[in-house]
Amino acid sequence: MLVLLAGIFVVHIATVIMLFVSTIANVWMVGYSKLGTASSGLWLLCNKTCEQLPVNSRDEASLKAVQAFMILSIIFSVIALVMFIVQLFTLEKGKRFYVTGAIMLVCWLCILIGVSIYTARFTGKVPESTSSHHGYCFILAWICFCFSFIISILYLVLRKK
């Protein structure tokens, strides 16, 4: 049981770190242009230098929603990690980690909404590039989506012994 708790804790910390990286770094889409490789993220467009991400007025609300949901997912993931530690020391034996599991499900839902909006609205859109593909931040966000769902189900099923 201790090994399972330690494993879940390590995966949870890895998920928090990957959420931070995927939200902060600007490599959600990578494109190739005459000037070289360009990457765009949630905040900046980077070629040789980084500048504010140019977004038309039609897509601005979608980008703000993606930014908000990814930040919310980080917040909920950190709160769930703190709640897990608190419940680990205060929960009676035989009880389940319902609160931690529920908070992680909210985190999972925020990741799902944020990445789905980005997929629907911004896939293949790197300004001034001829061809583009998804970058590592986009892939990390989907990996965090899977991890947060698995962790939340494990928290809901797991009993303190």
Task: Give the structure's gist in a few sentences.
With 161 residues, the protein is an alpha+beta fold. 65% of the residues lie in helices and 12% in strands.
Topology:
Blueprint: H1 2-24, E1 29-33, E2 36-40, E3 44-46, E4 50-52, H2 57-90, H3 98-122, E5 131-134, H4 136-157
- Count the beta strands: 5
Rg result: 18 Å
Approximate strand percentage: 5-15%
User: Which ranges are low-confidence, i.e. pLDDT below 50, for 5 or more consecutive residues?
Assistant: none
Helix count equals 4
Average pLDDT confidence is 89
Oligomer classification: single chain
Indicate the percent of residues in helices.
Answer: 55-70%
Main sheet strand line-up: 4-3-2-1-5
Q: N-to-C terminal Cα separation, in Å?
A: 7 Å
What would you call the structural class?
alpha+beta
Order of helices and strands: HEEEEHHEH
The major β-sheet equals: 5 strands, antiparallel
Given the C-alpha coordinates, what overall shape results? elongated
